[in-house]
Write a structure and sequence with these properties.
1024 residues, alpha+beta, 19-stranded antiparallel sheet, 53 strands
């Protein structure tokens, strides 16, 4: 969507009424400029990926005792269960954190992750790894159901812990209050916030055990007295919460949160409450954690002791190899892996791991937005000629069949399901079974390939995953009981609108620590029946000949390999290596096991030979008694001491909304506020302010901006409305701006032979729209009607006042100009680029734009066209090196055409800023980018770490000209020599500083024969 057409507010030197001195209102001008950046619609044609609203939802709202639940009718069964779960979690957190939030909590629910990715509660693109989030300003909790009951329960609890944390720390809600509160103290470190959310939602679990064992074994635990990131923030923070609870009692965590509220950071609070500063806490924590973990690691063999590494992420610089699948002949292995930021499906030899070919490229096309590498897998057909996998396309999951040799697409099928996982071919090749989610309910579905029909195999509120064929007529799968045992039936469950008030607080079994996944069997046409159950989550069944069964269970702390010899025998653990057994696959002859394992921060694929021998003898290090208690322990563990005991929270107050529900009605909330108002006896009141209103769901937005200077006619004002509820996003608004400018370029793109100082009143209205076709491609358009009045000045006198320029035709009057324009524009934009921390490194970005301006009146006639073509391509190489190529062309024609300028850090870097101009311009750049300084650690009294500095070598070639007067090369010299084309070569440094990219460029102009004087440019922005 478009910025305000024709506006060049960035060139303004001040914003004051006539007869005042330029420069006196700089603070107000800066705030207004910042507000415009925040509030203005996306610039027309700007690059970036798209949030595509494939679906429209008929939102309903239901008021439980403590929540406002926003849901749509299709997910009413899920919504009914979710609100009961949320209330149970709420009451448990009140007990554990000794605090009751002051206001109702908005809970926005989506029945599947592709729907959740369309939410407007946040304007950011949501990745597949985001399982939910809590809005810091309004404590809105936004959640999807991803098909897993325990994962959903975990995420609900995790996000509600954040709500309690924010309420304790900031004492209210709303952006203004939150921001002012955050300014009162140093925010707690991220490990404390996220670790607390993990600890109070799951206690200690197998995932935490996996990450901590690996971090200890490979020595990448991070010190708690320094900031750190990555997923380790969650898991190491979770371990730190466990340590604090054991060391000081369960009440220490709410005590620390309450003591921090408005009084200081964690360091001071911790010292006051426990006597430990962060450095001392870190020493005790790491010593305790390592002692506990090394004793476990001593009993775990390394995965490579018995299995051989087929694909090692450390050898290739990748992050993961995941979800292996054997071909029927056992000679090939299909698997997912990241490559240069994208996730692809590959085929490798099972003998030596040699990559045979890439079968499918993900994340680069609207037809392949995601391959779900961690949630699903690929499955070979019995003849080995085809592969079945699930891909995200157009907001829905599709079952895709590809040629197993070349990767070419053979067919796609889109059932009436929101998401799918774990496709598996039947033994006869006539069907594929998947675990699918429809309207927030997970079941097994069978797809008959020849008839292209779908059949539902299970029909209940339980969660069915990981299907495998025991034989041609029987399936085995992992099953988790329903979220609210015994309360709902499907179909026929009550919608949330009809839940009675006395339903809440009566289902503590929702949080039962004793439940997990068990293995069940299903004969086609029959009913499911239990098959195997251990004390952990039993997943990934792998049938063996004779009715024997391998599977994974985390009853021992990690996902390990277990074995059930016969239907009447007890299951036992047979292989428990460090790093766990993740997404295992069995060769067709049953003699080899391929699996992923977590090691040194990444996932490798290993192959275990002679599985039969493994079943006969058990490693002594895994032979201790099998656990009998579930690992899942919600809301922490019983502490070993009671030095700190939480004070009970006050009782809940009655609420007249409870039990009511109905269609959602738009209700606007203040979402952003900024202001700066000043008064003095000479200029009176002046200042800037903006306020943003958004509805609860973020679908509609109203922006009001005011830059006040004494009277309304001398002020800057903006009013706009934005709608994001449908696929077509649009904005409309009106504005009135008053600004001083001193520039050689007018705000309408006209060229001044010399820089001119003028005051411009600018009023207009706009309509802008954006239609995304896919995640990567969209069409932008806008229409502006602008009227402008300018007063010109000779300069500034000795007292700082602007001196009017006389009108040549009437010297007694000041020179003025008026014009009114209508300006439509249209842009087609594509962006599939992949980024590292400094900028794009792979993929392409391009845009084609056309704009027209026509006079509706005024002193200056305007009737012009403007065109732009911009193409960029990025090639990723080994070791973080990349090659970037840019080609662009711009042109303007007609009456009063636009002048383009070149020279400076954005194009011709070997020349001075805006050294060349013309109504035509072309540009080409070639840049080799590479890591330069990974890490520098400075000691001394103020030690700090400086790193992630990149380098670049570049060459630029371009030029700007008027009309047809352009001679690219000098003729008659015998050698290639530039004339009107300009070139340069040079090098640069790039450094990320928070949100800003700092760039230094050193370049020499060249005509292809000689080098000129060096130019140095410093800029803050983004690499092309």
């Amino acid at each position: 969507m478009s910025d305000f057409a024709g506006s060049t507010e960035g060139n303004a030197v001040s914003r004051e009424p006539a007869r005042t001195r330029p420069g006196r209102a700089q603070r107000a001008a800066l705030l207004l400029a910042a507000a415009i950046l925040v509030l203005a619609p996306q610039a027309a044609g700007a690059f970036g990926k798209n949030k595509v609203h494939y679906d429209s939802f008929d939102w309903q709202v239901y008021h439980s005792p403590h929540f406002d639940l926003y849901y749509y009718p299709e997910e009413e069964v899920l919504a009914s269960q979710a609100i009961l779960l949320a209330e149970e979690v709420y009451e448990r957190l009140v007990e554990r954190l000794a605090h009751r939030p002051r206001k109702r909590i908005p809970l926005v629910l989506y029945s599947a992750h592709p729907f959740f990715q369309q939410t407007n509660v946040t304007p950011d693109l949501i990745g597949e790894g985001t399982e939910g989030f809590t809005d810091i300003y309004r404590s809105r909790v936004v959640l999807p159901y991803d098909g897993s009951v325990p994962d959903f329960r975990h995420v609900v609890a995790h996000e509600l812990v954040h709500v309690f944390q924010l309420d304790i720390l900031f004492g209210g809600s709303g952006p203004e209050h939150a921001m002012s509160s955050m300014g009162q103290f140093q925010s707690p470190p991220l490990w404390f916030m996220e670790g607390g959310a993990e600890w109070f939602s799951t206690g200690w679990d197998a995932e935490a055990q996996l990450y901590i064992e690996d971090a200890v074994a490979n020595e990448y635990l991070q010190p708690l007295d320094r900031d750190f990131g990555s997923y380790l923030v969650y898991k190491e923070g979770q371990a730190a919460m466990a340590f604090l609870s054991r060391r000081f009692g369960d009440g220490i965590l709410p005590e620390l949160f309450k003591a921090m509220a408005g009084r200081g950071g964690l360091e001071r609070t911790l010292k006051r409450r426990t006597g430990l500063d962060l450095e001392a806490l870190n020493e005790e924590f790491q010593r305790d954690l390592k002692a506990r973990t090394w004793s476990l690691l001593a009993r775990r063999p390394a995965a490579s002791e018995r299995a051989f590494p087929l694909l090692d992420h450390a050898d290739t610089g990748r992050l993961f190899y995941h979800s292996p699948a054997f071909s029927p002949d056992g000679e090939r292995l299909a698997y997912f892996s990241d490559h240069e930021g994208e996730v692809n499906l590959y085929l490798a030899s099972t003998l030596d791991g040699k990559v045979l070919r890439k079968l499918v490229t993900g994340h680069r096309s609207g037809k392949l937005e995601s391959l779900h590498p961690f949630d699903t897998g690929a499955s070979f057909s019995p003849d080995g000629k085809q592969l079945a996998l699930v891909v995200l396309s157009g907001g829905r999951d599709e079952l895709m069949i590809i040629d197993a040799e070349q990767g070419s697409e053979l067919a796609r099928y889109r059932p009436a399901l929101d998401t799918m996982r774990s496709p598996v071919w039947s033994p006869d090749g006539g069907a594929v079974v998947v675990s699918g989610v429809a309207n927030g309910v997970t079941d097994l579905y069978l797809f008959e390939v020849a008839a292209e029909t779908w059949r539902r195999l299970t029909e209940d509120l339980a969660d069915e995953q990981d299907p495998a064929w025991l034989d041609a007529e029987t399936l085995v799968f992992a099953r988790h009981r329903e979220l609210v045992p015994g309360r709902f039936v499907y179909p026929g469950a009550f919608a949330p609108t009809f839940l009675e008030v006395d339903e809440f607080g009566t289902y503590p079994e929702i949080l039962d620590a004793g439940d997990g996944y068990d293995l069940w069997r299903l004969s086609l046409g029959g009913s499911p029946e239990p098959l195997v159950a251990t004390a952990g989550d039993d997943r990934h069944p792998l049938p063996l000949a004779g009715g024997h069964l391998l599977f994974t269970s985390d009853a021992g702390g990690l996902a390990e390999l277990w074995y059930r010899a016969a239907p009447d025998s007890a299951p036992r653990r047979v292989y428990a290596p460090a790093g766990g057994i993740i997404s295992p696959a069995l060769s067709p002859d049953g003699q080899r096991l391929a699996f992923s394992s977590f090691n040194d921060g990444g996932y490798d694929i290993l192959v275990l030979e002679e599985v039969g021998g493994l079943l006969d003898a058990v490693d002594a290090r895994t032979a201790e008694a099998d656990p009998v208690a579930r690992r899942y322990q919600p809301f922490g563990i019983e502490p070993e001491s009671r030095d700190f005991v939480a004070t009970p929270a006050p009782p809940a107050e009655s609420d007249s909304l409870t039990g009511r529900g109905g269609p959602y009605k738009t209700r606007y909330l203040v979402d952003g506020v900024g202001r700066l108002v000043t008064y003095d006896t000479i200029y009176g009141f002046y200042g800037s302010s903006y306020i943003t209103f958004k509805d609860v769901l973020g679908d509609k937005e109203i922006n009001i901006l005011a830059d006040i200077f004494g009277q309304i006619s001398d002020s800057n004002l903006l009013l706009s409305f934005t709608s994001l509820a449908r696929r077509l996003n649009w904005s409309a608004g009106a504005y009135s701006f008053l600004s001083y400018y001193q520039s050689g370029v007018g705000t309408f793109g006209e060229y001044f032979p010399n820089a001119r100082l003028y005051l411009e009143w600018r009023r207009g209205g706009f309509f802008a729209g954006s239609y995304p076709f896919t995640l990567f491609t969209r069409l932008d358009g806008d229409l502006h009607v602008i009227t402008s009045k300018r007063k010109y000045y000779e300069g500034v006198d000795a007292f700082g006042y602007a001196v009017p320029t006389p009108d040549p035709e009437n010297p007694d009057e000041q020179l003025e100009e008026r014009r009114t324009l209508i300006q439509p524009s249209l842009s087609l934009v594509h962006d599939d680029a992949l980024f590292d921390y400094l900028g794009p490194v792979k993929g392409s970005r391009w845009r084609l734009s056309a704009a027209y301006a026509h006079s509706l009146g005024g002193d200056i006639a305007t009737d012009r066209w403007v065109g732009l073509a911009d193409w960029r391509r990025y090639f990723y190489g080994p070791g973080g090196h990349s090659l970037a190529l840019r080609l662009s062309a711009r042109g303007s024609s007609g009456v009063d055409p636009v002048t383009f300028y070149m020279g400076g850090p954005q194009d011709l870097r070997g020349y001075e800023y805006l050294e060349f101009d013309g109504t035509r311009a072309v540009m080409g750049s070639l840049e080799w980018r590479f890591p330069f300084i990974n890490l520098v650690w400075f000691g001394g009294p103020l030690p700090f770490v400086w790193g992630n500095i990149g380098g670049a070598f570049f060459a630029d070639l371009g030029g700007a000209w008027y009309g047809d007067d352009f001679v690219p090369f000098r003729h008659g010299t015998g050698d290639v020599q530039l004339q009107d084309l300009r070139g340069d070569v040079g090098y640069g440094l790039r450094m990320r500083l928070g949100y800003f990219l700092l760039m230094w460029d050193f370049a020499w102009p060249t005509d292809m024969q000689t080098l000129g004087e060096r130019q140095v440019h410093f800029s803050v922005g983004a690499q092309f």
